Amino acid sequence: MSEEHLKSSNISFKELNVDDLLTREQIDAIQDEILEQQEVVVLWADKPLFTIGAMDGQQIAGLVQVAESGHVNYLVHPSYQQRGIATELLRRAIAQARKGDTPTLYATVKESSASEKVVLSQGFDLDESIAEEGYITTNLYSLRLQQ
Ligand SMILES: CC(C)(COP(=O)(O)OP(=O)(O)OC[C@H]1O[C@@H](n2cnc3c(N)ncnc32)[C@H](O)[C@@H]1OP(=O)(O)O)[C@@H](O)C(=O)NCCC(=O)NCCS
User: Rounded to 5 degrees, what are φ and ψ at 87?
Assistant: First the structure.
């Protein structure tokens, strides 16, 4: 989905200082709502490198966070999903990580999920299948940034 579309829906993107702008409780509240949709648990990084927010005015519509380990987590509030926000958040996170010295980005996603579509659209490759629970497989994807 194009950035123009995102602009027309008044979503803007900015780097967030999670400690200052977003409490753990606020992140958990967004996540709780998403978990009700039976999506995967988002594990926020212990050592975040940076966090980018998709903003609807002062409201956080979505977040992407890259950890020092290179692990990427992202989520979009249910009322803002399916508008290309996660795709744009990940695109921006990759661009920002390329400016630093993170060699590889990693994402853990459920097979055949919306989340998998997002990583595939940004060029991530399947690394390994890390867990199988019944018919649900969770995969580790990676994107090499530096040789
Ligand atoms: C996965 C998630 C981030 C997607 O956010 P989003 O902003 O709706 O994603 P986008 O709008 O960029 O959509 C990406 C693709 O997924 C598809 N998609 C998104 N939600 C979907 C849904 N509920 N059902 C089917 N397809 C869906 C979109 O149509 C799009 O497909 P396309 O590339 O063929 O057009 C969001 O559902 C979420 O927060 N899930 C819970 C957290 C999570 O799983 N995080 C990832 C692991 S770190």
Answer: -60, -45
